[in-house]
Amino acid sequence: MTTPTTTTPTTARRPATARPLPSLPSVYRSRASVELREFFRQRESVVFTLMLPVLLLVVFGAVLSFELGNGVTFTQYFMAGIIAAGILGASMQNLAISIATERSDGTLKGLAGTPMPKSAYFVGKVVQVLAVTVAIIAVLLLIGIVFYGIELPSGTEWLTFAWVAALGAAANTLLGIALSSLAKNGRSASATVTPFALLLQFISGVFFQFSEIPTWMQTVAAVFPLKWMAQGLRSVFLPDVMAAAEPAGSWELGRIALVLGAWCVVGLFLCVATFRWQDR
Q1: Which pLDDT tens digit goes with each residue over 90-129?
Q2: Is the torsion defined by CA of 46, 49, 52, 54 positive or negative?
Q3: 126 in any annotated domain
Q4: Residue 223 burial by CB count (10 A; 0-12/13-18/19+): exposed, middle or buried?
Q5: What's the pTM value of the predicted model, to 2 decimals?
Q6: Which among 89, 96, 137, 233 could disulfide-bond with 193, CB atoms 3.0 to 4.6 Å apart, if both were Cys?
Q7: How far apart are CA 108 and CA 99, in angstroms?
């Protein structure tokens, strides 16, 4: 009589539980943190982007301490322009150079090959621009109040200040991302972007009264967002009587909003059409 053999059931192996991917907001926060740390660790970027507007304010405020009329000093007029220039440097100029450098050294190519959503890279850059812009504005206003007696905006003027600065930063951020594709490599990025940024500052009423600039230069400046951003900021730092010195004889806040908004649309189109994750 044969004894029936009993078979021991084999225990099936359970597949290892896959680790869930991080949520999109956490990826955005992580990338933004990386961008901020990288920026503030680079002394050249901090000095050039954050401290240059401060140095210009100190130099011009000390040398050109005269009145323009109606009780307005040149420093009061210059404050609007130097804030606009600071936003330009933090957004368009800094982004165009840094993105071109990261494309040239292979950083962008490496990021494109990771599971990180590509949108997180741009969110990180936008957060960096916003943080640096706020820091520049805060430092410039503090120095202007303490050393030059700058009169701050009041009441609803702060709302105008906020939307002009925000729209201007957005337009220049998108323009900077698009301009990063013009440079052949990271080494040529600064030589490509910096002269363009300086030229815009000279013809857009940053260092001089806009009414004293030749008409054809005013026409060229009106094509780009810096002129409109500086004009919008002048409307909150200067009395209404100074609006007569503007080309249209008024602050044109409605047109400023339309132009800066249009540049946001154009800049977004240029970014989509030209952005590359690696060099040609």
Answers
A1: 999 999 999 999 999 899 999 888 888 999 999 999 999 9
A2: negative
A3: yes
A4: exposed
A5: 0.89
A6: 96
A7: 8
